[in-house]
Design a protein that fits this description.
It contains seven helices and six strands, in the order H-E-H-H-H-E-E-E-E-E-H-H-H. It has a four-stranded mixed β-sheet with strand order 2-5-1-6, with helices on both faces. A two-stranded antiparallel ribbon has the order 3-4. A hairpin with a 5-residue loop joins strand 3 and strand 4.
């Protein structure tokens, strides 16, 4: 009887170690995804119909412009450097969009890390929760519903006609598996999101 108990205990311990190992490996790859990615975040001035409409107008104009900033060989580090150097230009560009439409507020453009929840996009790509470098476009009071996507690599932009090719050019095979298999990793993604929520709250204390 004692031998059976010991055997069961050993199996449970081995199973727990396996779960921890898999979760640790999964968390590492998710962290690498966050490191390799730059998000685009546009926040409307308010939830009024007019402000929400201008948010999407700004989005559409920005998405036409952004792909030209990067080449096929641009690295994540280079993309951040390019965006950092172009912040004033981008802000001017957005303010011109607002002025042309007689909008009586301006835009504030920043490049910094911010927290995102787990997100599945229309093209089936999933991005795990956590802190990402983000190009943030604050419109006016920035109190309205927001819109976000991926600016590097161009996974959610109109230029992303070949999603698989874009993914393979930036992410490792393990990262690609996570990005393209939301159902397979649903439980682990939920667990990771809980961890990232706690980490984000601790970081903001």
């Amino acid at each position: 009887m004692k031998k059976k108990v010991n055997l069961v205990t050993a199996i449970i311990i081995a199973f727990m170690f396996l779960i921890l190992f898999n979760m640790s490996s999964f968390a590492y790859n998710c962290d690498e995804i966050r490191t390799d990615t730059i998000r685009l975040h546009i926040i409307a001035s308010s939830d009024s119909e007019k402000d929400q409409k201008i948010k999407y107008t700004v989005r559409d104009e920005l998405l036409k412009k952004y792909p030209a900033l990067f080449t096929d060989n641009t690295t994540r580090k280079e993309a951040e450097q390019i965006l950092s150097a172009e912040l004033n230009t981008i802000e001017t560009f957005v303010n011109e969009i607002l002025a042309e439409r007689d909008i009586n507020y301006s835009a504030d453009v920043k490049l910094k890390e911010e927290y995102f929840e787990t997100r599945i996009y229309d093209n089936g790509i999933i991005l795990p929760a956590g802190r990402y470098m983000s190009l943030i476009i604050n419109l006016g009071n920035a109190q309205g519903k927001n819109w976000w996507c991926v600016i590097f690599p161009s996974l959610c932009l109109p230029a992303a006609q070949n999603t698989e090719e874009i993914i393979e050019s930036v992410y490792t095979s393990d990262e690609k598996t996570i990005l393209t298999s939301p159902d397979k990793y649903e439980i682990r993604l939920r667990l990771l999101e809980y961890i990232e929520i706690i980490r984000n709250k601790v970081d903001n204390i």
